[in-house]
Amino acid sequence: MKYIKNPSEIEVKSFEIIQGIIDEIRPGYEFKNEIEEKIIKRCIHTTADFEYLDILKISDRAVDKLVDALKSGATVYTDTNMALSGINKRKLKALGCEIKCFVADEEVAKIAKEKKMTRSMAAVEKAASEEGRKIFVMGNAPTALYKVMEMKKEGKLNPDAIIGVPVGFVGAAESKDELEKSDNEYILAKGRKGGSNLAAAIVNAVLYSI
Amino acid sequence: MKYIKNPSEIEVKSFEIIQGIIDEIRPGYEFKNEIEEKIIKRCIHTTADFEYLDILKISDRAVDKLVDALKSGATVYTDTNMALSGINKRKLKALGCEIKCFVADEEVAKIAKEKKMTRSMAAVEKAASEEGRKIFVMGNAPTALYKVMEMKKEGKLNPDAIIGVPVGFVGAAESKDELEKSDNEYILAKGRKGGSNLAAAIVNAVLYSI
User: Start and end of every Cobalamin biosynthesis precorrin-8X methylmutase CobH/CbiC domain (chains A, B) (predicted)?
Assistant: First the structure.
């Protein structure tokens, strides 16, 4: 069986094919700017789903805030270990950033049970108790995304930016509509689609632009 | 902000909504059997993408082989740490199964460099060198999927079943077409779509059915 075995060759070729398909299915489609192009194309690269041309929304200062926070050693908090797994840790480490996911933390499980909230929500409370600049990356749990927005409103949390791409049928679309209306800097996917893989792809696209 | 915070309630409600949407967009759609229904619905649950109604293909004996292997303490080999992260380890452990991903293994990196192959391919070689029954779960790397099929043909590897859902634009669709034509038991997604999240969802659907 003959197939391309060089990873960097595969990646370059993939992005060429993606542009070719965009030219075909959406002639004249224009990205707002170079970084938005990179983010959306990486979302398509990760999902093979061209709907991200339409549903990915990036607030005006989101990328600047993300880049500034990442250059300043912010901590990245994810709602799943899957999202954490997919994010380029080598790049983060080189920038002096940490990445954490508290969802499987024993203390968090205990708090969630006591307070009758999801573990994802309790994980946000734990993140909020830590020092330093924060980026939240939510690919799974609408409850966690709501919790970040609630704590921000209550003055208990001040994230630099939120990657808000929970996937699903209960609360996911609604949570992202809330995020779009909020005063947070965000990258989000409208509607039901999203996921941990998408969340990781978005963070990586920003990391690779630095 | 009001939203459902009970995880099991969210899951039950999600699957009701998924069935409702299927009734609406595909009236009269019939799943082949109960386990196929569970697998496809969990794929939709994970991606919010109803295309999986059409593109997910399950070979006749795939589920039986998967269940038998899992009940016999097989080892699950994934091509990414993301897929590994998403698979229910508590369930696997209860069945006496191990799960491994060698892609970030130092020895594998060395072999890949020497043999000029991808790390994913070298990871398959390492898996093949181990004893015991094997399930391969490929959500990312067509090269790894080809490698499993090659080694099977050469008599160097005898997987019980292959979850073959690499996503992407270079080799992904082709690798899955090969898998469909092969004599392996498979669960695959036709075309470009797939991913580590999907791979994990499929394994979990089978695990939850045991």
Answer: 9-208
Whether this model's ipTM surpasses 0.85 comes out as yes
Those residues with Cβ within 8 angstroms of residue B198's Cβ, 6 or more apart along the chain or in another chain = B43, B46, B47, B52, B139, B165, B167, B189
User: From the CA atom positions of chain B, what is the Rg in Å?
Assistant: 17
| Contact B182/A at CB under 8 A | no
Task: For A52-69, write each residue's pLDDT tens digit.
Answer: 999 999 999 999 999 999
**A171 in contact with B at a CB cutoff of 8 Å?**
yes
Q: Is A142 on the interface with B (CB under 8 A)?
A: yes
Residue A1, pLDDT above cutoff 70: no
Closest chain A residue to B113, measured at CA = A6
In 3D space, the residue among A53, A133, A138 whose CA is nearest the CA of residue A87 turns out to be A138
**Domains contained in chain B, CATH given:** 56-209 (3.40.50.10230)
Please give the C-alpha separations between residue A61 and each of A36, A67, A173, B108, in angstroms, as whole numbers: 12, 10, 22, 41
Please pick, among B18, B45, B126, B180, the residue that the annotation labels catalytic. B45
Give CA–CA dist A121/A145, Å, rounded: 8
A45 catalytic? Reply is yes
